[in-house]
């Protein structure tokens, strides 16, 4: 009996302490409400996750991860937030890593940015239930990511951010010139900038996916960033030198 109890405790410990959580904030591409070079109408409809460039399109967050051999699509979760048009959960197939992704209505890009930065600071935990298991994302995530247009090119934020605890949180920001525009705010949150950009880029999901591959393996920040650059070069054919200058890590 004692041996059985020991085994149960060990299994619970592995489940809890070996668990990693990722929360991805996606500002849907929006021709009308964002200062972007217009894309085809269906891709740039910020109120249609199904066809959106950053969500339902071939290299959008939902489609690309559903097609990945490394991730299992768990379910779609109803959102009580009217700004979030779709919320989905994935589980990594070989590790105890869960990913929550939120598709924000493109006209609410400012709120998407604020919510991402709040989570980066450890605020606003988001609890969901997966197979009778309660998981907490938002500020309780180990890694937070932003995908979309860099709205900070058009607006500034009056919100002040500060770390809510000493827990280490990594951040990935796939948006144009994100290092320059997000840096003042991300510093306030205390999060570690794992991957962000120095120039114009296409924030599609393959870059995030390859970076997460290394993050799950506990690689160094430099190794993870190199994976992101390799992904960008593979899909954009921009050359590794250019991709390595575009995607960087650290302050």
Quick description:
With 251 residues, the protein is of the alpha/beta class. It has helices at residues 2-17, 61-67, 109-120, 178-189, 205-216, 221-236, 240-246, and strands at residues 20-27, 71-76, 84-92, 97-104, 126-130, 133-137, 143-147, 170-174, 192-197, 247-248. Helix 6 packs across helix 7.
Largest sheet: 8 strands, mixed
Low-confidence stretches: 1-16
- Helix content estimate: 25-40%
Overall shape: globular
Compressed to H and E, one letter per element, the order equals HEHEEEHEEEEHEHHHE
Describe the protein's architecture and organization.
This protein is an alpha/beta fold and 251 residues long. Helices cover 33% and strands 24% of the residues. The protein contains seven helices and ten strands. The protein has helices at 2-17, 61-67, 109-120, 178-189, 205-216, 221-236, 240-246; strands spanning 20-27, 71-76, 84-92, 97-104, 126-130, 133-137, 143-147, 170-174, 192-197, 247-248. The strands form two sheets. Strands 2-3-4-1-7-8-9-10 form an eight-stranded mixed beta sheet, with helices on both faces. A hairpin with a 2-residue loop joins strand 5 and strand 6. Helix 5 (205-216) packs antiparallel against helix 6 (221-236) and helix 6 (221-236) packs across helix 7 (240-246). The radius of gyration is 18 Å and the shape is globular. It starts with a helix and ends with a strand. Residues 1-16 have low confidence and may be disordered.
């Amino acid at each position: 009996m004692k041996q059985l109890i020991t085994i149960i405790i060990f299994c619970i410990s592995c489940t809890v302490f070996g668990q990693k959580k990722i929360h991805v904030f996606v500002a849907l591409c929006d021709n009308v409400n964002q200062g972007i070079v217009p894309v085809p109408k269906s891709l740039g409809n910020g109120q249609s996750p199904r066809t959106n460039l950053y969500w339902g399109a071939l290299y959008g967050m939902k489609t690309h991860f559903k097609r990945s051999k490394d991730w299992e699509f768990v379910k779609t979760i109803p959102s009580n937030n009217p700004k979030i048009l779709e919320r989905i959960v994935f589980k990594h197939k070989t590790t105890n890593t869960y990913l929550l992704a939120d598709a924000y209505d493109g006209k609410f890009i400012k709120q998407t940015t604020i919510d991402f930065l709040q989570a980066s600071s450890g605020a606003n935990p988001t609890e969901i239930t997966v197979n009778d298991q309660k998981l907490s994302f938002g500020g309780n995530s180990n890694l937070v990511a932003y995908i979309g247009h860099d709205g900070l090119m058009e607006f500034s934020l009056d919100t002040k951010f500060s770390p809510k605890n000493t827990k280490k949180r990594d951040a990935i920001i796939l948006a144009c010139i994100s290092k320059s525009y997000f840096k003042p705010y991300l510093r306030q949150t205390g999060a570690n900038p794992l991957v962000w950009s120095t120039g114009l880029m296409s924030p599609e999901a393959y870059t995030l996916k390859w970076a997460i591959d290394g993050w799950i393996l506990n690689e160094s920040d430099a190794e993870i960033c190199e994976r992101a650059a390799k992904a960008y070069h593979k899909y954009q054919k921009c050359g590794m030198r250019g991709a390595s200058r575009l995607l960087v890590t650290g302050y």
